[in-house]
Amino acid sequence: MKPATPITTPSRVLYDEPDDGRPRFCAAPGLSASVVRRISAQKNEPDWMLNKRLRALELFVKTPLPNWGPDLSKLNLDEIVYFVQPEAAESKSWAEVPADIRRTFDRLGIPEAEKKVLAGVGAQYDSEVVYHNIQADLARRGVIFCNFDTAVREHAEIVKKYFMTQCVPVNDHKFAMLHAAVWSGGTFIYVPKDVRVELPLQAYFRLNARQGGQFEHTLIIAYEGAEVQYIEGCSAPRYDVSSLHAGCVEIFVHRGARVRYYSIENWSKNTYNLNTKRALVDEAGIIEWVSGNMGSGVTMLYPASILRGRGARSDSLGVAFAGPGQHQDTGAKAIHAAPDTKSTIRAKSISTGGGVCSYRGLVRVGSHARNSAVSVSCDALLIDDASVSTTHPCMKIAANEVDVAHEARVGKIGEEELFYLQSRGLSEEQAIQLAVAGFIEPIVKALPLEYALELNRLIELEMDGSVG
Amino acid sequence: MNQMKPKKNTLRADGANAGLPGAKRSAPPLVADLFSVSSTNCELKPLPEVSTVAAAAARPGMAGLEAQPMFSQRLAPPIAAYALRITRETLPAIDLDIRQVKAGGLIYLEITAETGSTANIWEKITAAGWAAVIVNLRLESQCRITYAASQTAAPEAGSWALRQANVAAGAEMTWFDLALQGSLTASEITTYLTGERARGAIYGIFSGSGDEVRHLNHRVEHLASRTESNLLTRGVLGGRSRADYRSLIRIAPDAPGCRGQEREDTLLLSPQARIESLPELEIRHHDVACSHAVTATRLDPERLFYLQSRGLDASAARELLVRGHIFAILDALPRPGLRRSVSEFFLSRSH
Q1: Chain B: closest CA distance from residue A354 (Å)
Q2: Which of B286, B288, B298, B322 is best to mutate for the A interface (most A CBs within 10 A)?
Q3: Residue of B219, B265, B294 best to disrupt the A interface, most CBs of A under 10 A
Q4: A357-408 residue pLDDT tens
Q5: Could you give the percent of chain A with pLDDT greater than 90?
Q6: Mean pLDDT over residues A288-306, rounded?
Q7: What are phi and psi of B190, to 5 degrees?
Q8: Contact A406 B279 (CB under 8 A)
Q9: Where does the record place the SUF system FeS cluster assembly SufBD N-terminal domain (chain A) (predicted)?
Q10: How confident is residue B36, by pLDDT bands cut at 50, 70 and 90?
Q11: Which of B78, B248, B281, B338 is most buried, judging by how many CB atoms fall within 10 Å of its CB?
Q12: How many CB atoms lie within 10 A of CB B103?
């Protein structure tokens, strides 16, 4: 297989070109009970799932759009195609995947990533996972890593218990309702008690059909003492009509378990990325969020950790990049509901060419959360005078045996720093790129190698021509 | 402290000072001793009511608070609307004493500080009932105004205040927002830095005990280049008291070279006390250095232990640490009398 170039030299064009994918079943634009029934029938779903979808749809219709945050007025929910199934059934081996779909993934660097000893590859082409490869070793240890549609059929009991019940309930907010009504595809990970998955599991999501919606559901359950890392990458080709991504990630971290969730989201610039990510963390469990938000026209994403067991911990690292026309409204939430819990949030953002980066965070320490500690820091970098940075950190503290600290800084790249780098022979552009790379370095360091490379290259690419 | 005797040249806001410049017998009817201004060489004039109220109510901050039921029922047209003019001849110490407010009444005060003038204004709300105040300050270039508002309403009453300042080039506006006593105090302060190199500071102390509620909303709008702002608030909450602290520094797109910092530290003395903080930044120019920080902490057990090992009893050690927490602002208060009264308040207060 030819080496996948995107890892070392990503180019916007590679990510933005639509493939000639021939969808097998494509729902008509717009949302109605019949669309929801068709999606459910197509997937041969049990009744409880269909009922859940219909109930969510009812709620969705009744609920108004959020009246805060970025402007969603250009998002036309009636123009979106809520379900597209590509012409491929789920395959076990790479060779069985249709050639044009394979080409898409080649460009995105998936097989190369797999070669580099990643444990398994699940890639979502439009709305269904077409390729999944679980290492036999994992299956032997009882780890389930599969397409979410498959999980609904084969692991119904577990799915029924955890799917949109206590973590992200169906009625959580408007886009969670939408997600519950039309979700399709996604990933299901189940790690049994005391099993440690050493290598990160990986999936890549991509939106391809015109006006396509992507509503993948990710459910990760780490039983007592289990450990798992999951990497998710997203990219979508560029189209004229606004597309919508409203995914949902639910993570259950049981006692003493540890989950690390990475996501690099690089949707095309006309996508609305309105995502919900939440983890419920039990006693002594640890959740770690590492997220990079690069693409999308509008992003609203605030990974939340609910620390409900004594000594639970949450660690959020995020970097957001907003170029011309983009609004990245990202942040993190930590809800402390048990004693001795600890959360740290570190967020970095870069705005250039008129882009808007907002940090919107919530830290809530309940009255039961004695002896808890919270540390939040967010930094923003403004590259030019058309760009905007806003910070909205909300802290609600209802316990006094706590230590809560928040700080934020906004500024430009130091002139002395640039002068020094230029005096050492770098051009202005190189100097700025180096300073930016240094700014996001603490977050890039937390990423697996090829993702770190990709993130750095993507930011370089986005910054291209933004100087002078 | 609520019986501050008017000095010799007191201008009474009830219009009783006939013959003094600006004070007319034909002033609107007022409750006697509603409030008084004591200073020399400043000018107090009654204002036509309706227009000023309409102007004040049109402010964006007002609309937000009005929507809250606790305010909407208590707001009424002002029972006093006055304009105060500070000149270079005015002696700096000015006392505004707000003692008695008719239920639902609102006091509107417009203060203009002439170019190059200096003043230390101490506004005291010591009303037995509810007090509502709107203060509109206009600072001409190169003047320095300090405005300290101390709200020590009766325990069962409260106060609501909306204060704003428009700061011209090179002028400096310093607010002290002291939300000390009263079942509810709501205070919103906005400084508009409209002239180059204008400076604005908002310092605050809030204290809550029992079921008291504090709302503080501090904002600085940087509308001109090279303007600077500094926001610092310290709070002490005991009992089941609650505080809601919001702050915003906004840098306009055409205001390069601005500096701004905001910080709020709350000391939570009881497990039932609650604090909500929302310090916001909105930056629309890249040539900027802004920061904000928030902390919520308890009394450090190690420090308490240390002080007790040095011979202080538990309550003295506690008192000392509480005083230490607010000291940065206490120490910066502009008038010795004010410093003393805040200091005494904290000594007498059991949080």
Answers
A1: 9
A2: B286
A3: B294
A4: 999 999 999 999 999 999 999 999 998 888 899 999 999 999 888 889 998 8
A5: 41
A6: 91
A7: -130, 130
A8: yes
A9: 110-202
A10: low
A11: B281
A12: 9
User: CA-to-CA distance for A349 and B145, rounded, in angstroms?
Assistant: 37
For this complex, say whether ipTM is above 0.85. Answer: no
Average pLDDT, chain B: 80
Q: Give me the residue from A394, A397, A408 closest to B274, CB to CB.
A: A397
CA nearest A388: which of A299, A468, A328? Answer: A328
Rg (alpha carbons) of chain B, rounded to whole number: 20
Of A296, A358, A301, give the one whose Cα is nearest residue A323.
Answer: A296
Pairing verdict, β B288-297 and A402-411:
antiparallel
Per domain, the residue ranges of chain B are 11-300
pLDDT digits (tens, 9 = 90+) for A6-41: 334 444 454 555 555 555 566 677 788 988 998 898
Element (H or E) spanning A105, and its range? helix A99-108
Plot region of B139 (φ>0 → left; ψ -120 to 50 → alpha; else → beta): beta
Show the DSSP H helices in A170-233 as ranges. 174-182
Annotated domain spans of chain A: 21-415
What is the DSSP pairing of strand A84-86 with strand A23-26? Answer: antiparallel
Cα separation, A319 vs A347, in Å, equals 6
Tokens 């240390």 belong to B306
- Report the mean per-residue pLDDT for chain A: 81
Residues of A in contact with B322 (CB under 8 A): none
As beta bridge partners, residue B177 has B149, B204
Closest Cα in chain A to B278:
A394
